[in-house]
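Each record in this resource describes a single protein on a pair of labelled lines. An example record follows, reproduced without changes.
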Amino acid sequence: MTPADQWRSDFRAWRGRRPFVGGVLLALGGAEILVTMKAPLPVILHIGMQGLAGYLLPTLMLVCGLLILFNPAQRLFYSVLAVLLSLGTWVTSNLGGFMVGLLLGVVGSCVTFGWLPDQEPRVSRRKRRKAAQGAEALRQPPLSGAGEPA
């Protein structure tokens, strides 16, 4: 096994023990909102504390996404906090990063909240069908010509 294959295998095992997709979506949502805060558009207004909250909420979303990836034991708390932060960006951060960051944050939080750590790995349909056919072949008695008249 090459080092690249070993790395891929280790990463796949690491990814399987945590809500990887939810954490990545949440972090991407926070990053997207932060990027839209810097966009030079006439739509963007920063006034006082709302300007601070406009940077604070997506930064906390990004942090929650990273915490979900690196501390999955507390995923429920982080996901509830992150969905509230994501919804708060509607008011503070240019309609939640023009809806894209808000949707990424909410979907990532929901995926994380619904993730179960002790599930059996999913088996593909092809493997299930092959196992069922093998089990059925074992149940059928073998055909023999000894009891039939000639």
